[in-house]
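User: Hey, quick favor. My workstation is busy. Could you predict this chain's structure for me?
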Amino acid sequence: MQGEPKRGKLLIMRGKWVECPNCRRNRQLMQIRPDTEGRNIVAYCRICKAENIVDIVKGECFESYGQ
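Assistant: No problem, here it is.
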């Protein structure tokens, strides 16, 4: 049975921007619009140099389990 895909933890958003889950300092990691959707998107933080794989569902950003 195929249902809703599992999602990781919800990432913090400041307005339209996603905050880095590692350093929490970069408030402009990625801009998300309310109609944005995508799976396994790589978001790179310029401050802590970390790559985060995220899933975006209906304008909400989640850490991906598919790492």
